[in-house]
Amino acid sequence: MKLECEIEKIKNGILQVEKITGKNLTLPVLSSILFIASGKSLKLRATNLSLGVEIEIPAKIEKEGIIAISGTTLAGVFSNIFQNENIKLESEDGNLLIKTKKNRIKLKGQTHDDFPTIPTVDGKTFEIESKKLVDGIKSVYYSSSPSDIKPEISSVYIYSNEDNLVFVSTDSFRLAEKKIKMKKVEELPGILIPFKNVSEILRIFGEIQDNIRVCFNKNQISFSSEGVYLTSRVIDGVFPDYRQIIPKEFGVEAVVLKQDLLNALRISNIFSDKFNQITLSIKPKEKVFELSSQNNDVGENKTYLDAAIKGKDILLGFNYKYFLDCFQSINTDSISIRLNQSSKPIVISGSSDNSFTYLIMPMNR
Amino acid sequence: MDTKQLWKNCLVEIEGGISKANFSTWFKNTHILKEETGIVYVGVPNEFVRDWLKNKYHKLITKTIADAYENMRAVEYIITKTEASKQEISPMNEIYINKELPLKDLYINPDDNLNPRYRFDSFIVGPFNELAYAASQAIIENPGTKYNPFFVYGGTGLGKTHLIQAIGNAIKDKHPNKKVHYLTLEKFATDFINSLQNNKANSFKEKYRKYDLLIIDDIQFIGKMEKIQEELFHTFNTFYENNKQIIFSSDKHPNYIPELADRLKSRFAAGMIVDVSEPEYESRLAILKVKLRELSIDLEQEIIEYVAETIQGNIRELEGSLNIIVCQYRLKNKPLSVSEVKNLIKNNIRPKKNVAIKDVVKIVSDYYSLEESLVYEKTRRKEIVKARQVVMYLLREDFNVSYPLIGQKLGGKDHTTVIHSYLKIKADLKNNPQLLQELEQIRIMFK
User: Which parts of the sequence are annotated with region: Domain III, AAA+ region (chain B) (predicted)?
Assistant: First the structure.
């Protein structure tokens, strides 16, 4: 293998795929990045057998070839090369020689015969703007459960509904749902992408502007765009039927300014107990929207917010952390909070924006 | 068709053909889902595995299955849930040799020095040690009163240490408030010398006298340590007077411990002196089986019998041979044949020594404090005759020397004389424990 390419491009590529190399796996070669030089491009491939990624970089190939190099070493090397010229890569006796104007580096290669292929997915395909995909995932993925015990909820659930693509995730204490409007939606029966893989998808496609081609079947999903191919395993499971827990009618409705609420929550945070509980009290007749929290060691606080309220009196407790999480997904200035009774979930959405819905289970102790 | 068995066999084949890393990465959680009209469906956990099996191992898998199952026409791969297939790889395929070994030394309890591994659960009782076992059970019931002191002797590797430590552990369990202490004579001696150096002889006395049960191992080395004999004598007296149990082990009967003070000899004799002899065939078999159960390994009956048959004598050697076999078994991961086992332990079988007859005569005459040359002479002095007969008996019994040769070498005796001597000693052994003792002592000198 012998080739020449731009430092910036290969550097980006390596830093992207390195995160995906397998750690702690029984097959040592999986911790490396596979370089495939053929035609007019250099492909960088990495996989941890749950997620596989291939990034293609334009390069001047003098001699085709394949070599596998430890991912951590490469990342270490390339994150410290700061030149803006071309770089020359050459394989020699199973080692990789890297030449820039100022560096001469020799990296030990690994046998690449055992490096697996990355599955190509055949199944239904559709295209989506990268921004929409990233927005959809980003709006909900923080709500999924980090534990592996129930794989179906430690994932992001994607399905199509009319002309929307719906993203949902929950950890059974709160739930986030985001609907993304699409011009044309392929029938998508519901796919569960593992939480761990979702954050990698965000990282890799977060910077891409083009359309993304999504291809899926019941076992695997792939995302491809210019020069990037990523494929993830899909969880074989059934996502809970969450729609039935979203209340249709509400006894209490309040609209508050997002910034006010945020400030109030931050103050309450200081006084919250170790369960992060804060108490919400709404009294429409007296026009009171009050957040209170108390901690025996610190003290207590009550914050009153200006709010447009209608309905009956209510008093309930919840975990403020869950509340804070959803602010990143709400783009409107005011927030609508809807409730029924103190034992039923709180429903939060941006006022006049029904694309995002967020549910918090109350905590009454 | 048993698809489970088929796949198991195939996996064993495949495992041999590829590296361990590859095997565990790609073949873990795979199984045969079904077989229909010659097409074998292999269930795999995900697309990555399916892709790679198809691209890289398809040939190998197809060939392996075809070898084992002739009706096979094609192999297909299907992605299935992983849970269902988790048990598919049998524990056989794990490599036991990589298992972490327990840190034995850490188990020793610093308070009492006892190794909790030595228990009666794993102690095999047979005719060779039943007396010692029965006595120890009585001691556990009533420490300090029944058999005090308790003196166990027997050859090396016959389970003395196991027995006395098991007594300690059992007493600790049964009487939790009793203070038990185990030590070797060497430790006792070092402690004593240190206390003399530091002028703390009193604290030494205190240290040992506070225990309720003292177990001293390998007491036979006390012979030349006069001062320590004296100290032990006093310690012993304190224990005895306070009805506290004291247990000794030795590889010789107290009467044969050289230079042992008479007052100690008589005190040892006051309690219970039992011997542990070498296990006979059935006991060896039982010991092997218990050891195998501890290691959770199954060996063929034939192999166990062979080992019990060939490795005679001490239990430690028996264990050693078994360890070699078990290690090999885990390494190869398949049952061993008897001939392989024979090959493995051939070095452990103590060869029937070809001892020069002269050496035997020398050792025996030394033992009876006779002039070596007297044995060869034609004399009928009683003590010489006895020694000569013992020589003949040993040569015949232990070294398989032919009767005529023995006769010829021992001053031109007729082979019938030799036969007579051999049979006489053999008969005497049955009703003369003194003679048995002597022979054992002599045999130890050959080793």
Answer: 113-329
